Amino acid sequence: MDTRSPLHPSAIAVFGAGSIGAYVGGALLGAGAEVSLLGRARMRQRIAEHGLHLTDLQGRDLLLVGARVPYADDPAALAKAALILVTVKSADTAAAAEAIRAHAHPSALVLSLQNGVGNAATLRRLLPGWTVLAGMVPFNVVQMPDGRLHRGTAGELMVEASPALAPWLATFRAAHLPLAECADFDAVQWGKLLINLNNSVNALSGVPLVQQLRQRGYRRSLALMVDEGRAVLARAGIKPAKVVSVGPRAFSLILRLPDALFTRVAASMLKIDPEARSSMWEDLQAGRKTEVHYLNGAITALAASLGMDAPVNRRMTELVTAAENGAQTALGAAEMYRTLLAAKA
């Protein structure tokens, strides 16, 4: 017999309230939702000092007083949640599942809002009998020096279509985070992963996203990785979805355009807040392990399972890993492109 406390039908827990988790949770709190944040002590301290201050590239500005933000580092906080948003790093997915199984109510809906592919499958494997859905956060959130969590890029949350989401749709709309339901979510995740290969480029460039994208060498580096990823996915029989304004093939072609032409053709791609950077850059600055093995590494792993090689993504994984260990400085655009092109050769 299950002796756990009954869940609250409108309660939401955000498990892994770092940049993305605290931003999503804060937006829901600001819209009046019943939300608890579960994360590390450093984010709790940041919120206590600065409040939960959210801004975005459209000019939205929300400040929640720290004392009014429910934040815990004990998984027992999951007990009453009817919806659990999992936003931990991919390496922590299995541990998150164990904590959910130990503390949360078995009828709670679990929604993975994590980078990479395979996280929802891991949660399902470790949480048999639970309803687990995959999701994807298309936008970027950066922790600013003044304590703000700043959303620097656009896009709507994309989630695996399910009737279980119906009670939550209005709540997310009210928080300016509408949920776009998708039938073939594997295709969406692989499409997003191809775009997310830019996380490693930005992390090693040392410059904001918009400055990085204006430099052809960085774009051509990304195009090399995207094309290699597309080839691997084609061998696997996977057709990645279009998750930005153009599909993966056109995206790669546009990236290779000369700077002046790219600026005109890809004007919408450059509608990025000048402060925006990738979460991988943020991890490197904080001395944390990145998710490169779950992004570029996912391409090399899939390739290996098919008897293929993915040398460009493998080399980028090596470069980021070296940076994690303090052995890699920022790479200029031309140097990065030469390095990845040599790996392909």
Key terms for this structure?
345 residues, Rossmann fold, N-(1-d-carboxylethyl)-l-norvaline Dehydrogenase, domain 2, 15 helices, 12 strands, 14% strand
CATH class of the largest domain: Alpha Beta
Radius of gyration based on Cα positions: 20 Å
Q: Order of strands across the widest beta sheet? A: 5-2-1-6-7-8-11-12
Strand content: 5-15%
Tell me, briefly, the overall form: globular
Helix percentage? 40-55%
The main β sheet shows up as:
8 strands, mixed
Q: Which residues sit in consecutive blocks of at least 5 with pLDDT less than 50?
A: none
How does the helix and strand content classify structurally? alpha/beta
Output the helix-strand order: EHEHEEEEHEHEEEEHEHHHHHHHHHH
3D structure, described in words:
This protein has 345 residues and is of the alpha/beta class. The protein has two domains: 11-183, 3-Layer(aba) Sandwich (Rossmann fold), CATH 3.40.50; 188-344, Orthogonal Bundle (N-(1-d-carboxylethyl)-l-norvaline Dehydrogenase, domain 2), CATH 1.10.1040. It is 44% helix and 14% strand. The protein is built from 15 helices and twelve strands. The protein has helices at 19-30, 41-50, 93-103, 119-126, 169-174, 185-196, 198-205, 209-213, 216-236, 248-255, 259-265, 279-285, 296-305, 311-324, 333-344; strands at residues 11-15, 34-38, 52-56, 61-64, 71-72, 83-86, 109-112, 131-136, 141-143, 148-151, 157-160, 179-182. The strands form two sheets. It has an eight-stranded mixed sheet with strand order 5-2-1-6-7-8-11-12, sandwiched between helices. Strands 4-3-10-9 form a four-stranded mixed sheet. Helix 3 runs parallel beside helix 4, helix 7 (198-205) crosses helix 14 and helix 9 packs parallel to helix 15. The protein is globular, with a radius of gyration of 20 Å. The chain starts with 10 loop residues before the first strand and ends with a helix.
